[in-house]
Amino acid sequence: MTTEAADTAALLTAAREALERYLEVHVDDDGALTFSHADVPCVIQATRLAEGLTVLSLTCVVAWDLPDDPAIAASAAERAGQGLFGTLGVVRSEKGIDITLRYAFPAEGMDPSPLGTLLMLVVSTASQLRSDLLGTAPGD
Length: 140
Description:
Number of strands: 6
Radius of gyration: 16 Å
Number of helices: 3
Order of helices and strands: HEEEEHEEH
Oligomer: single chain
Largest sheet: 6 strands, antiparallel
């Protein structure tokens, strides 16, 4: 196993252990972590950008196949300006619009407790945004 592979595997293991305090986490064949929080599917991947700089990348699919309504895109853009954790994306498709929340950060050396807290802040933001967009309480 290369140093890069070992570094990313160790970081994904730390993220899995940190998240398992809160959620059921699955490890995919490629090592990515997948889980769901309040009907928001999420994936975490690790990448070494440079020696000593390995980052976790968290992507949450907040909503999909929403009507292509300018008000929804405007609401997502407004929320994007309010958030501290993550970047919102709006993607148009044949079925409407999809909204994602992405957050990448250097996580090498983080202790499990703060790592889990940081990941849950992002995931909770995605769940709250889904609730706001769909007009439901988280978990409904």
